[in-house]
Specification:
The chain is α+β, with helices and mostly antiparallel strands. The protein contains eight helices and 21 strands. It has two domains: 2-22 and 346-453, Neutral Protease, domain 2 (Orthogonal Bundle), CATH 1.10.390; 29-241, Immunoglobulin-like. A hairpin with a 4-residue loop joins strand 14 and strand 15. The longest helix has 23 residues, at 397-419.
């Protein structure tokens, strides 16, 4: 009787929010079968902060309805004005510094198209809709400038971070027009990538993809070619003084790119241990390579991209913090990287599971207690854990972390106490397998959890 009562309470937490926040419609797993959308990008660094880019996107309609317009997130546009930047002007290390992305030309199936913009959303109308099972080629030529900023998109000291940097196709219903000041902004389906990167010889590049070729020119430049399959996005970090330490876990190549060599053993060991632990508990890591790069980040301690993790330089030498950060960010390779979700409207799915996964790793592998924090305890005692809220519901990063990361992880911990740790881990393993390279919604997660607790 107690077991059934507790199960009802857990489900009620999810059900109550259906009437407060709009939720994404369930996805059709069959829609994810077949050929992926494919990007081919040529990017050339023309100065320390500027790039010229040609981007070809072969868009595949895997849905059941015709597509009459294409939606692209163009996040660099947010950095053109202080009022639209996700970082307040006072947070720029040397004062306000503008970045931007300027679209110079767009063609669809070799026909010129005039895009229109609403904030960070680029809309391309289609004269001839893309029918289910068909595709079209979109070509976008643009110039890009990164701000002087220690952020996921920006240059600080001699390192350039290119995260969320190119026009990224977004499914209808998951688009946004404003770059949120908390949380992750991107909501992409998986796609295949090939990328040619031309940079001065003095730079070392690390990316989401696998290096397939390098060509050196007589003019002091090199062109690096990369490929990546089933990635939700493609991130790049360029550094003038980066060095790389390589290792391997099973069939996965490990790269750690760092600015200085202090504490590299702790970082690499944690990277390897977490990768092995999550493979054992959730399923096989989906990519041939996992890259971790030390870079300059604020306010983040780490940021995840498929196949690549950015680690804030300021925390690298703090062993307890770096282990906790890496455990969380590596878990995102399973939760969001592989099993996707709407990170803006339903961020609790990937963030709470990644936090719960890091709790498992820290407690099982490091024999340490996972501290949820005093702020969470106070909030929980007041009955105000809104972990199902969208990112727009939170006024600051601390509030977001308290509710979505830790409040959500408390939900999974309570569910573990209800059904058992092994049963919950097996449940997550099943979710990983069933929604592999697809997306899961709160509605679907509610249905899956309901089946679990009623077993």
């Amino acid at each position: 009787m107690l077991r059934k009562t507790f199960a009802i309470l857990i489900i009620a937490i999810l059900f109550a929010f259906y009437f407060v926040y709009p939720l994404s419609a369930p996805t059709n797993g069959a829609d994810m079968e077949g050929k992926n959308t494919a990007y081919h990008i040529k990017i050339k660094m023309t100065s320390q902060r500027e790039f010229e880019v040609e981007e070809d996107i072969y868009v595949v309609n895997k849905g059941e309805q015709a597509i009459d317009k294409l939606l692209f997130q163009v996040f660099p546009k947010a950095f053109a004005q202080p009022g639209t930047s996700p970082i307040a002007a006072t947070g720029y290390p040397a004062g306000w510094s503008a970045g931007n992305l300027v679209v110079n030309e767009v063609t669809i199936s070799n026909q010129h198209v005039t895009p229109f913009f609403e904030g960070v959303l680029m809309v391309l109308p289609l004269k001839n809709p893309i029918l289910p099972g068909n595709g079209k080629t979109v070509k976008v030529k643009f110039t890009m400038k990164v701000p002087l900023l220690n952020y996921r998109f920006g240059r600080y000291n001699d390192v350039v971070n290119l995260g969320d940097w190119y026009p990224l196709l977004v499914p209808s219903g998951r688009e946004i027009t404003v770059y949120p000041s908390v949380g992750d902004p991107a909501n992409a389906s998986v796609a295949d990538y090939s990328l040619d990167l031309t940079i001065p010889q003095k730079y070392t590049a690390v990316t989401s993809g696998v290096l397939t070729e390098q060509k050196d020119s007589l003019l002091g430049h090199k062109t690096l070619s990369y490929e990546g399959e089933s990635l939700r996005s493609f991130a790049i970090v360029l550094g003038e003084n980066l060095r790389i330490k390589r290792s391997q876990v099973g069939n996965t190549n490990i790269e750690y790119a760092f600015i200085d060599d202090q504490n590299t053993d702790v970082v690499v060991d944690t990277l390897k241990d977490a990768l092995f632990f999550y493979e054992e508990n959730f399923g096989q890591y989906p990519y041939p390579k996992l890259t971790l790069v030390e870079t300059y980040l604020s306010p983040f301690q780490g940021v995840e991209y498929p196949g690549l993790i950015m680690l804030a330089s300021r925390v690298k030498d703090k062993e307890d913090i770096v282990r906790r950060v890496l455990a969380h960010e590596i878990a995102h390779q399973w939760w969001y990287g592989t099993v996707g979700n709407d990170q803006v409207r339903e961020p609790w799915i990937d963030e709470s599971i990644a936090t719960y996964a890091s709790k498992l790793f820290i407690e099982d592998q490091l024999n340490k207690d996972f501290n949820f924090g005093s702020d969470l305890a106070a909030t929980a005692s007041a009955g105000r854990i809104d972990f199902l809220s969208p990112v727009t519901a939170f006024e600051n990063r601390e509030e977001y972390l308290t509710h979505v990361y830790y409040g959500g992880a408390m939900f999974w911990t309570a569910l573990e106490h209800q059904v058992g740790k092994k049963e919950l881990i097996d449940f997550l393993k099943d979710i990983y397998r069933e929604y592999h390279f697809s997306e899961i919604t709160t509605v679907q997660m509610h249905q899956e959890i309901n089946r679990l607790v009623e077993q």
